């Protein structure tokens, strides 16, 4: 079925929406997190029972994208009542069908709960996790089946493309992007409209638009969830971008480690071609454009534009000196616009609702919303979309629910491994591009890791430096050698072998790497070191001067002991000890043999009486 006009598309949307609005629907989360917890079994059980009870014709069943609240999966929502169930197992499905679908009764034990108050709620939006979000890009995640283009069309999909091709010139599209204030969501925050204008002005008969789906940050899953849950929003944005700059070819560069995203994209591309949104004379216009998928090998450095171009062309993922920039000479030497997944997904919404609406969200220089993967030592983890300008404290404490019981939040790592660590004293900092850079961090692609008082900031810096030195392409000496040397110095500090001069050397080296590296990886690799030195220097000094790890993490500097006055002799710590270092009789104080202790911390975790201490 080829869609030739906007009017034809609008009629189809009304037809599909009417069918959706008059039919009860069960939505099972099919994101990677929920699948890992068994949501495919939940879906299969629903299909079996609905068919057995002959309810398949009257109740719609969907396998959707990620809802966001990943740690509570599998998630199930029921429309139109919008009942929201968490941690659903296949054995719970029979009760849901009988009680909720057939008799409209709520199953209290399956309702989602506020982790702070323990209150159970009926609907997603009643949870603090969702209440403070402003879901624009994620508005259809958890609502539509990403493998069925009709689901996207029923909610206005490709209407922005029709509006663009039938009513706007390429220059007007670029002007809309400029007025919206949209900046690249991949990390650098370069103005999208400006990039498009430069590419349109560049000389060349063949031009490319590229979607950067190389999401390599540890703990980050924003782009993956978008590609899995609403791929057509990304495709529509790319087609609009192609029209604006005069491109005829598109590429989606996605990590090989994202098989579900790749499979969903392949289906979406086939359907887009079938409906005429890709191919020749799209909507009867002169625009002919198609998109292909290029799978990446998983190199973190390939997220850098010039390294990505090298990978697309089949070469080693190494960055090159700029200028010329990709908008002048990109893929195969042609002018190329590269934006990340989230940036492209914003484009159709801006065209549909207008640049002024988008610019009204956020701050003076950081417009719209930003998606973050919120992970770490926090009650609510998952995928969130917030307006720019929200403070770190609001994100961590209100949406994230604060720390687990009996713990205190110490810091956040924001911006991925090349980001910075910010202490709780800065949690009133607004989340925008300029404020984060001023504090020593960066927006990055949207990874945010919360750390509690059991986290050693020196060890955190070492962890990220280990990652970055491994991911360095090695092309330039400052990054290749500097990251290795910083890792060695951090290791010496963690092992209690460092001196005061090592701290000065570490800081000086970090500055040199930052100022002299070739690409963005090296230029930001020092951020974890510089921010932890800036905000947590007393921890470094305790490691060097006192040979002590205040957080009790660095194994060379700690010992586990059992306080005899608090030990009840319950034997709970004896059997879990992998080296049999703990001895003692029932109801008698236990003792740890330091010569056999592996310092794994299991005894500390299992002791319910606070008898195990780190000294």
Tags for this entry?
5-stranded mixed β-sheet; alpha/beta; 24 helices; 615 residues; 4-stranded mixed β-sheet; 39% helix
Calculate the mean pLDDT score and round it: 94
What gap, in angstroms, lies between the N and C termini? 71 Å
Radius of gyration: 26 Å
Structural class: alpha/beta
Determine the fraction of residues in helical runs and give it as a percent range.
25-40%
Hey, roughly how much beta strand do the residues contain?
Answer: 5-15%
Instruction: List the strand order in the largest sheet.
Output: 10-9-13-11-12
Poorly predicted segments:
none
Kindly describe this structure.
The strands form five sheets. Strands 10-9-13-11-12 form a five-stranded mixed beta sheet. Strand 11 and strand 12 form a beta hairpin. The termini are far apart. By secondary structure, the chain is α/β, with parallel strands linked by helices. The longest helix has 18 residues, at 477-494.
Break the fold down into its secondary structure elements and pairings.
Elements: H1 6-21, E1 25-29, H2 32-36, H3 39-52, E2 60-64, E3 76-79, E4 83-85, H4 93-102, H5 128-131, H6 149-154, H7 159-167, H8 170-180, H9 192-201, E5 208-213, H10 222-229, H11 231-245, E6 249-255, H12 259-274, E7 290-296, H13 305-312, E8 336-340, H14 341-353, H15 355-359, E9 369-376, E10 382-387, H16 392-399, E11 409-414, E12 420-423, H17 433-438, E13 447-452, H18 457-471, H19 477-494, H20 500-516, H21 520-524, H22 527-535, H23 537-545, E14 560-562, E15 582-583, E16 591-592, H24 602-606, E17 612-614
Parallel strand pairs: 1-2, 5-6, 5-8, 6-7, 9-13
Antiparallel strand pairs: 1-3, 3-4, 9-10, 11-12, 11-13, 14-17, 15-16
Helix pairs in contact: 7-11, 7-14, 8-9, 8-11, 10-12, 11-14, 18-19, 19-20, 20-22
């Amino acid at each position: 079925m080829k869609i030739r006009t906007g009017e034809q598309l609008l009629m189809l949307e009304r037809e599909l929406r009417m069918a959706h609005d008059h039919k009860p629907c069960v939505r099972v989360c099919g994101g990677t997190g929920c699948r890992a917890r068994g949501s495919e079994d939940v879906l299969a059980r629903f299909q079996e029972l609905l068919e057995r009870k002959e309810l398949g014709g009257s109740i719609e069943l969907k396998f959707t994208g990620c809802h966001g609240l990943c740690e509570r999966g599998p998630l199930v929502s029921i429309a139109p009542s919008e009942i929201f169930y968490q941690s659903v197992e296949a054995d719970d499905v029979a009760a849901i069908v009988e009680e909720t679908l057939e008799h409209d009764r709520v199953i209290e034990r399956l309702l989602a709960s506020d982790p702070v108050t323990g209150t159970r709620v009926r609907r997603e939006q009643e949870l603090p996790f969702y209440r403070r979000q402003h879901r624009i890009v994620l508005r259809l995640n958890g609502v539509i089946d990403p493998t069925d283009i009709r689901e996207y069309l029923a909610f206005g999909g490709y209407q922005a493309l029709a509006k663009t091709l039938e009513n706007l010139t390429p220059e007007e599209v670029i002007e809309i992007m400029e007025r919206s204030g949209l900046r690249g969501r991949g990390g650098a925050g370069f103005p999208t409209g400006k990039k498009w204008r430069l590419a349109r002005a560049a000389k060349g008969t063949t031009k490319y638009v590229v979607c950067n789906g190389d999401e390599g940050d540890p703990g980050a899953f924003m782009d993956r969830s978008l590609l899995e849950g609403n791929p057509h929003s990304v495709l529509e944005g790319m087609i609009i971008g192609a029209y604006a700059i005069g491109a005829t070819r598109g590429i989606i560069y996605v990590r090989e480690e994202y098989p579900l995203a790749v499979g969903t994209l392949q289906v979406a591309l086939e359907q887009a071609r079938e409906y005429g949104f890709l191919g020749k004379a799209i909507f009867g216009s002169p625009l002919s454009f198609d998109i292909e998928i290029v799978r990446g090998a998983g190199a973190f450095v390939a997220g850098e534009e010039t390294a990505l171009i090298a990978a697309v062309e089949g070469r080693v993922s190494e960055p090159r000196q700029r200028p010329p920039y990709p908008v002048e000479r990109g893929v195969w030497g042609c002018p190329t616009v590269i934006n990340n997944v989230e940036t492209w997904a914003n484009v159709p919404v801006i065209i549909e609702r207008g640049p002024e609406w988008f610019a009204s969200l956020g701050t003076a220089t950081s417009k719209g919303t930003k998606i973050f993967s919120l992970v770490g030592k926090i009650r609510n983890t998952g995928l969130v979309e917030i307006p720019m300008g929200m403070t770190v404290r609001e994100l961590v404490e209100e949406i994230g629910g604060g720390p687990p019981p009996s713990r205190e939040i110490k810091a956040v790592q924001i911006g991925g491994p090349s980001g910075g660590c910010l202490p709780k004293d800065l949690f009133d900092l607004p989340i925008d591009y300029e404020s984060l850079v001023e504090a020593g961090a960066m927006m990055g692609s949207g990874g945010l890791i919360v750390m509690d008082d059991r986290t050693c900031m020196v060890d955190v810096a070492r962890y990220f430096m280990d990652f970055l030195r491994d991911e360095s392409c090695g092309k330039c000496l400052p990054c290749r050698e500097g990251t290795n040397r910083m890792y060695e110095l951090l290791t010496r500090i963690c092992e209690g072998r460092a001196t005061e001069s090592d701290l000065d050397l570490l800081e000086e080296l970090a500055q040199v790497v930052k100022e002299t590296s070739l690409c963005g990886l090296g230029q930001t690799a020092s951020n974890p070191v510089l921010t932890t030195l800036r905000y947590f220097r007393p921890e470094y000094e305790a490691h060097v001067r006192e040979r002590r790890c205040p957080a009790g993490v660095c194994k060379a500097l700690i010992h586990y002991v059992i306080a005899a006055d608090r030990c009840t002799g319950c034997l709970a710590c004896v059997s879990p000890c992998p080296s049999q270092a703990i001895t003692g009789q029932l109801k008698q104080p236990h003792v740890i043999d330091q010569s056999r202790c592996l310092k794994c911390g299991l005894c500390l975790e299992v002791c319910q009486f606070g008898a195990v201490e780190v000294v």
